């Protein structure tokens, strides 16, 4: 018997309460609501208050639409689609109703934000088109790249000038009968939305398995168990081939020269302890990503005659955040990998030459700190280069915030660590972004402050490392991790 519409839509809420991230959501929503209340209280103009509340509601509705989409597509299992009569029809109808209500509310809210200076019909169309675009990103990850990177290429590629005649022609046609064209557009967009749901054929099986693999990787990532890029499918496997080849060669090199010494044993153990967070995987992935970005940027500059200086200056904050997330990740992710490799650790401690007790604590901490500090140094040098291109010293606030927090996170006793939950994994990252936001504001408004803050960060990190290093001698043996939690 096919479930009713309310049960289909309420499944999203029930599923969200089973992933262990309840406290993370409670804290996140609380911070947003408190920040919104404070901002509204201090705004002197009523219209600004209304605009702020409406903007927050627009983003909240967007999050609700994504939550519903993920749930509806998860219910669109190929087997139940073929065997349960009417299930596909109900899923499509529920998606259409939710899409119309949410996109309609978003269009009206944006209309209120703009103080009714823009007609309502095009805003409704834009909200509806965005909702369908997000739905197709759930079908295949390549649509996410198109949707999220496409708008950022409009200005660099001068598309606003190239497509101006076509745009003006469409506007002239639209203005003849805006509501009729809106209705026709909604029919077309609704048909596209229904095609996101599979009908149980072979293509549906492939798409469903791809989505399930990606969702499983995302959920594992929320607890620090990072998945490889091979989860993206065939293209991901091609991109991951250099990483896999490099790790395989490094393992062969270590095995060929294996000795019962601490350096040799820890180098081999590091491959098992850190998995896909190993320093070689991280380095090769970063190098490949930077090479693709540089190659793509160079081709774009040459083909379209774009000035790189203006583009870097406009996109410098976004580029810096991307570099920071990728480069400083070892400071916040390596510790969690110890939990996910604890089964292997029970055998690793039996290897000939494996240090024991306090010596093992220092050896494990050294592996992780070496990886993080070298990654921090390389990322900081890249940020300095970006700073020189864009003229924004505040970009270094990422490095200032990451150094002491990364050291603080990596020098905790692994034996006492608990199973990483989404909330526990997110706390250091949220702390990092909070510290970065405060430091960025200070560096942006106070000239020359970034360099004293950088020096203070290095001094503070050195003191923290010296104190934590002494406590490692008194901590329980690091491996297996989490056995005393």
Our estimate of the beta-strand percent is under 5%
Average predicted confidence as pLDDT: 79
* SS-derived structural category: mainly alpha
Question: Tally of extended strands?
Answer: 0
From the N-terminal CA to the C-terminal CA, the straight-line distance is 46 Å
The number of helical segments is 21
The biggest beta sheet is recorded as:
none
The coarse silhouette is globular
How are the SSEs placed, and which strands pair?
Blueprint (H helix, E strand, L loop, with lengths): L4 H12 L5 H21 L3 H30 L2 H6 L3 H27 L6 H20 L1 H9 L9 H4 L1 H13 L1 H17 L7 H20 L12 H23 L5 H13 L4 H26 L3 H20 L2 H11 L1 H7 L9 H33 L6 H14 L11 H24 L4 H22 L14
Keywords: Membrane, Transmembrane, Transmembrane helix
Description:
There is one protein chain. Helices cover 77% and strands 0% of the residues. With 485 residues, the protein is mostly helical. It has two domains: 5-145 and 175-216, no CATH class; 225-471, no CATH class. α16 runs antiparallel to α18 (358-390). The longest helix has 33 residues, at 358-390. The protein is globular, with a radius of gyration of 26 Å. The two termini are 46 Å apart.
List keywords for this structure.
485 residues; 21 helices; transmembrane helix
């Amino acid at each position: 018997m096919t479930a009713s519409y309310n049960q289909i839509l309420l499944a999203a809420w029930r599923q969200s309460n089973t992933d262990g991230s309840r406290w993370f959501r409670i804290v996140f929503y609380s911070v947003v609501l408190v920040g919104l209340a404070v901002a509204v209280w201090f705004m002197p103009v009523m219209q600004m208050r209304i605009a702020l509340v409406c903007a927050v509601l627009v983003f909240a509705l967007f999050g609700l639409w994504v939550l519903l989409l993920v749930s509806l597509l998860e219910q669109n299992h190929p087997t139940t689609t073929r065997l349960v009569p009417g299930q596909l029809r109900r899923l499509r109808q529920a998606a259409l109703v939710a899409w119309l209500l949410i996109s309609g509310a978003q269009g009206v809210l944006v209309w209120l934000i703009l103080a009714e200076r823009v007609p309502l019909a095009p805003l409704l169309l834009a909200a509806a088109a965005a909702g369908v675009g997000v739905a197709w990103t759930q079908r295949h990850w390549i649509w996410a790249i198109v949707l999220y990177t496409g708008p950022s290429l409009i200005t660099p590629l001068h598309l606003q000038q190239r497509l101006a005649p076509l745009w003006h022609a469409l506007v002239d046609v639209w203005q003849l009968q805006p509501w009729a064209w809106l209705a026709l557009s909604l029919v077309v967009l609704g048909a596209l939305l229904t095609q996101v749901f599979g009908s149980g054929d072979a293509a549906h099986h492939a798409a469903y398995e791809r989505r399930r693999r990606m969702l499983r990787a995302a959920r594992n990532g929320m607890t620090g168990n990072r998945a490889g890029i091979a989860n993206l499918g065939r293209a991901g496997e091609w991109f991951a081939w250099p990483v896999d080849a490099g790790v395989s060669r490094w393992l062969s090199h270590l095995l060929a020269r294996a000795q019962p010494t601490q350096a040799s044993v820890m180098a081999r153990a590091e491959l098992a302890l850190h998995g896909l967070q190993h320093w070689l995987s991280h380095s090769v992935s970063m190098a490949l990503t930077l090479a693709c970005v540089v190659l793509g940027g160079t081709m774009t500059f040459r083909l379209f005659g774009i000035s790189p200086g203006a583009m870097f200056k406009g996109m410098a904050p976004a580029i810096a955040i991307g570099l920071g997330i990728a480069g400083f990740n070892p400071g916040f992710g390596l510790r969690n990998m110890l939990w996910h490799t604890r089964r292997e650790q029970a055998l690793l401690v039996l290897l000939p030459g494996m240090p024991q007790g306090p010596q093992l604590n220092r050896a494990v901490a050294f592996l992780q700190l070496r990886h993080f500090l070298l990654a921090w140094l390389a990322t900081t040098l890249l940020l300095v280069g970006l700073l020189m291109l864009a003229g924004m010293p505040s970009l270094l606030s990422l490095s200032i915030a990451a150094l002491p927090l990364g050291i603080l996170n990596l020098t905790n006793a692994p034996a006492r660590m608990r199973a990483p939950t989404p909330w526990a994994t997110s706390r250091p990252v949220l702390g990092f972004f909070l510290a970065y936001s405060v430091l960025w504001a200070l560096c942006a408004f106070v000239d020359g402050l970034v360099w004293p803050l950088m020096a203070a960060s290095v001094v503070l990190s050195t003191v923290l490392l010296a104190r934590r290093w002494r406590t490692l001698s008194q901590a329980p043996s690091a491996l297996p991790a989490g056995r005393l939690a």
